[in-house]
Amino acid sequence: MKKKTHEGNFVTIDIGSVSIKAVVVEISAKTKRLVSVEEEKYDAPLLNREDEQSKSIVVKALKRLNERLSVYKNITVGSIYSNRELQVKILDLPQQIQANVLEKTLNWEAKKMLSASYKDAPYSYSYKIIRNNPFSVVLSVVPDSLLKKHIDLFKSAGIKLSGLYPEVYSGTALLGMADITGLPAVSVVNVGYVGTHLQIFSAGELKFYRYIPSGMSEMSVKPTSAELEVYSQKIRFSFDYFRAVSKLNQIDLLSFMGGGAASEGFLAYEQSYFSPTKINALDVSSGIDIAAVMSKSHNEAVSAEAKQKYILPFIPAIGGSLAGSAKDSDKMNLIAQMAAREKERLYENFVNKMPIYGAVGILLAALAV
Fold first, then answer.
1. To 10 degrees, what angle do helices 52-69 and 144-156 make?
2. CA dihedral (40, 46, 49, 53) positive or negative
3. What tens digit of pLDDT does each residue of 121-170 get?
4. Contact 331, 128 (CB under 8 A)
5. Is the separation of the CB atoms in 109 and 89 below 8 Å?
6. What integer pLDDT is reported at residue 2 of this predicted model?
7. 188 burial class (0-12, 13-18, 19+ CB within 10 angstroms)?
8. In which residue ranges of the chain is pLDDT below 70?
9. CA–CA dist 10, 23 (Å, integer)
10. Residue 205 — φ and ψ, nearest 5°?
């Protein structure tokens, strides 16, 4: 029987605007176990991680994190990737698109997705097949220059990065842990500091994805009702658009994750705002054993709500580990796909120059006579 996952210890690093979070997940054919969670907080939030000072802060934090992770052996290190120039699209391809032309089709679609600022720039794409015959595919594309900057952060910190997974694949992997039996429409929302990733699934398939450039940076440390209302309206606008194009009446379940979802009063407000939709914090405990981490960080007297809030900021990274261990992880992995595209470009360049090499060879042979 073929393995459904790769096995081993998977470390996934999530570089955020407030801190860097990491998880260590042990995955085998029989079990998934959260071994450890780690966090390196910055002295102050980094709203722009592109300037040299911010990069230096991130690299130093990665180095400190790497020192703590060094106790784990035989690990595969991956990272979640998010960027405003990372474009994501769900493609429902025509019936006539077969497997032998899928890559060519996706490459063509990926080039069209690039923003005007990078329309002629080298790019890399990764993808996940949602459904075969006809193909439904989640496609992600990003300019190589931005991708390499992210990878360079890890190189500067002495970390060998094997995988880079767009956030959308983290959410998709996590849904496999949730009980959505009989629910027509389910949404998973990752609430970050400067942005929010929103996904909607129908009949178990990803049907909608949107990055909302709004997050906890726009609110007080303890968010007010007015601030939460403005934020929640932006989520509702996405829901309204999805309902209009999908003809579904409502979202049946809305699950939140990420550091923002752990903010005081956040979930309680969302439960009131989106009623009668069921609202909860995304619970992964039915699909992965988190007991070891929870027992290290909390005693029995701590409430279930406090334990839930503790794990929420690390759930996106857990999804990254699940994506990294999946049998189709190479397709979702931007590093693997960038290497594959580079190999193709080198081969095409060689083939195009073969007539020149042949002519030079003939000339040299003639001169030798």
1. 50
2. negative
3. 999 999 999 999 899 999 999 999 999 999 999 999 999 999 999 999 99
4. yes
5. yes
6. 46
7. buried
8. 1-4, 178-182, 297-302, 347-349, 352-369
9. 8
10. -110, 140
**The pLDDT of residue 83:** 92
**Three-class SS string for the chain?**
CCCCECCEEEEEEEECCCEEEEEEEEECCCCEEEEEEEEEECCCCCCCCCCHHHHHHHHHHHHHHHHHHCCCCCEEEEEEECCCCCEEEEEECCCCCCHHHHHHHHHHHHHHHCCHHHCCCCEEEEEEEEECCCCEEEEEEEEHHHHHHHHHHHHHCCCCCCEEEEHHHHHHHHHCCCCCCCCCEEEEEEECCCCEEEEEEECCEEEEEEEECCCHHHCCCCCCHHHHHHHHHHHHHHHHHHHHHHCCCCCCEEEEECHHHHCCCHHHHHHHHCCCCEEEECCCCCCCECHHHHHHHCCCCCCHHHHHHHHHHHHHHHHHHHHHHECCHHHHCHHHHHHHHHHHHHHHHHHHHHHHHHHHHHHHHHHHC
Cis geometry, peptide bond prior to residue 134 (ω within 30 degrees of 0): yes
Tokens, residue 326: 């999946």
Looking at residue 277, its pLDDT comes to: 87
First-last CA distance in the chain: 62
Residue range 35-87, pLDDT digits in tens: 999 999 999 999 877 889 999 999 999 999 999 998 888 899 999 999 999 99
d(CA 281, CA 174): 13
Beta-strand pair 278-281/87-92: unpaired
Q: What is the pLDDT of residue 352?
A: 65
Does the pTM of the predicted model rise above 0.85?
Answer: yes
pLDDT of residue 299: 61
HSE, side-chain direction, 13 A CA sphere, residue 183: 20
Q: How far apart are CA 325 and CA 211, in angstroms?
A: 25
